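Entry for the shared binder. Reason: the reviewer on the internal report wants the predicted structure included alongside the sequence.
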Amino acid sequence: MIQPVEKSEKYHLKQRGSSVNKSTNLFKRILKGTWGTIDATRKVAINLLFLVIAIALLVMAFSNNDPKIAETTALVIEPQGQLVEQLTGKSFDQMLDEARGVNIPETLLKDVIDAIDKAKDDDRIQALVLNLSSFTGARLTKLQDLGEAITNFKTSGKKVVAIADFYAQDAYYIAAHADEIITHKMGGIVLEGFGRYRMYYKEGLDKLGLDVHIFKVGTYKSAVEPYLRDDMSEYARESNEEWLGDLWHAYLDEVATARGTKPETLNQYAQEFPRLIAEANGDSTKAALDFGLVDKALTRVEMREYLISLVGEDEETHSYNRVAMDDYLKTIKDDRFGRKTKGDKIGIIVARGTILDGTQPAGTIGGDSTAALIRQARNDESVKAIVLRVDSGGGSAFASEVIRRELEKARADGKPVIASMGSVAASGGFWISTSSDQIIAHPTTITGSIGIFGIVPTYQRPLAEHLGIRVDGVSTAPLAGVRLDRELPTEVGDMIQGMIEQGYREFLQRVADSRGMSTEEVNQVAQGRVWSGTDAYEHGLVDKLGDFNDAIDAAAELAGLDDSYSVSYIEKEVEFKDKVLSQLMTKAINSVDPNTSSVSTLDSVLRQVKRAAADFGALNDPNHVYVLSNIETD
């Protein structure tokens, strides 16, 4: 039997329960408050740590502290990847690919030349070391500019030493300008000559059932041959043999002059390389030494000890006293790109890469973005003349015309325009050069390719044959039924061909007006044919043969400037976040040795196919009309 609880006992029980609840709530509040304090402290600590790391990275990225340079030291020029006229604007993913060795890194040619020019008169720099182990190449005009800078440096009486584990052809061009060439004991030199080989897709496209409709004008216009043939046409072979021969003779002559040997000796080494290696029992280093192409073969330890004997030893690293190019550039207080200069200027606009419609990043020519730079120069009263540095195999006809018109307006406003042709200025690269007062090309510039084409792929056959998919419907006008999954109507193809022919006539007229020739005369040297700069000059397609500096001098003369003018590079302003990413990734990219990457033959083939597809996939002319050569810029 349950006994009833007295009223007073109920009261005491209630009081005790209330006290327990209060104690529990108090404990919970204390625990919650303590945890809140710990959590807040944790967040503050993490945020502070992040802030410290961010600040440290920014300081590291943008630190302009001059490096410590010994009284006797060597400037080390160690180009990574390819030498280029303009660095490519890259996304974060692309920079990561470079850091992993997937993409080829780039070194700005101007940086290399500026560092060498500065070092010539710097008493602390007693030697120039050209470390070419990570250099993957450049077109001949860039090699010539660098070779000239090295030759100029040597007038100071300071020694130039080239070192590399192994010298490929482009690296050897640079090395030949040194006083001494050193290779590794397991290294050597390969001179492979110049060649032009491409993949041809016609049989493969037929097997896949893909129809690629090509519309072109120009007997020699070979950019689209891989989609039409399984081999090189005789016309393309004729043209390629001629300009490749011009470049090879130039290479042999210039390297022989720099090295103090004969062109015939170098050509014999290239032509008989397999026999020479066999006679040297497979020792490529011995073959190079026997032919007098290198001076010494040393291990890396011996190389280091030899360089220490030249400029002294760094007590901290126990290597030779040296300063890297990137660090040395920080000591140059001059405004190298002329971004802050006052007074009269010559504006430099670099047009490098494929010409595409719209706004494009650096390393690609955008119709709108490049036109905006020209407009900026035109509206800047301090810019008295414009030099357009062209390094492009062409692209969109529409974008090319947008750029050409903007240059035409600059000239109409009284600003002289000089087109300076770099390694390649063909097709659209030639088109945009026609609105200039003068065209100046290197003797080894690859130019011409005055032709035009259009390309429309359709894939209705594999859809039907392999998947049983067909497309049908109705439309109120013919163009509404034009789709990539349907056969291209004959009348549409005829229409496109008519547009291509009209574009070619316009191209001829642009060149004729620029060169003071008749369209018939232009047509005789056009037809999509590629010429060397020397041949282009002989055929009247360029005004002078010369380098970039000659173009600047010509611009100054036309503008009536005295020696007080400055040179200003007119470029799109890089966003702050992109600067940070670029700076932070530079060291990672520069630490990659391209020679350590392992790419299988299949991977290499697939990458070439992917690149070809990407190159054509990026073309975005609104009329699908292109002035594009088959010559890569770099």
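Summary line for the report: The mean pLDDT is 87.
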